[in-house]
Structure formats: C-alpha cells, structure tokens
Amino acid sequence: EVQLVESGGELVQAGGSLRLSCAVSGSSIDGYVLAWFRQVPGKWREAVSCIDSTDARTFYYAPGAGRFTIPVDGAKNTAYMQMNRLSPEDSPVYSCAAARRRDLSDIASMWPYDHLYDYWGQGTQVTVAS
C-alpha cells in the first residue's frame, strides 16, 4: 500500500522560505503524479502544485506560481515543495497526494481535482507570521 508522510511545516516569518517534504513508501514514485494541496479549516481544499514523475512536467495554481517549486528526489522516493516569499495567506495545512499517471489522461486539466488522487498524507501545518 502506498503511504505518504509529509514533514517540514513550521512557523516562519513573512518573506521567508520553507521546504516541505513528502516521503513515499510502498511503491516507487515512478509512474505517479504527486501533488500538493492546502486547506484552511472550514474551506475547500486548494490545489497548489503538481509534478508528473514520468516526464518531470510541473503545474502550479495561482497561490504558488512564481514562488513555489516542486522538485523530486527519486533516490529518496520523496517529493518536495520549496516555498519562497511566504505571506500569512500561505498558512493552511499542506497535504501531498499521489495518483497513478495512467489515471489522469489529461494531466494539465485534471491535476487540480483532489478526488482523482488515491493516496494522501496526514498533512503538515505551515504558519507564516506577519
């Protein structure tokens, strides 16, 4: 069974940077799409970024475009999200998710939809102080 474990969430000052990790076990990340979502309590889950492990294409939604990157370390079977120029609006719980690439026929349009992902981590809290 595929399991995801996030880490790296902490308190950081506005303007600072943070790197979140998503360690994958139970399967190689090859052939998977790995995505980051975030959610403020009481609000819907919001897509942030995604990487297609088959060709390393990345996708970003407005909150992270231009500020976040999503590198992957295949040797460690781990995906990361490097977040720069953080603001208090970047403070929700971040979760990573995985889906088989073959299940997302049109990744460019499908990646933001959380219901398409089969595996989820428990989440990690990011708090950005102003």
Helix content: under 10%
- Beta-strand residue fraction: over 45%
Please summarize the sheet with the most strands.
6 strands, antiparallel
The mean pLDDT is 94
Q: Which class do the helix and strand fractions yield?
A: mainly beta
Radius of gyration: 14 Å
Which sequence of SSEs, written as H and E, runs from N to C? EEEEEEEEEEHEEE
Low-confidence stretches: none
Global shape: globular
Number of DSSP strand runs: 13
**End-to-end span in angstroms?**
40 Å
Count every helix, treating DSSP H or I runs of 4 or more residues as helices.
1
Description:
This protein has 1 helix and 13 strands. It is mainly beta and 130 residues long. Strands 4, 5, 6, 10, 11 and 12 form a 6-stranded antiparallel β-sheet that branches. Strands 1, 3, 7, 8 and 9 form a 5-stranded antiparallel β-sheet that branches. β8 and β9 form a beta hairpin. The protein is globular.
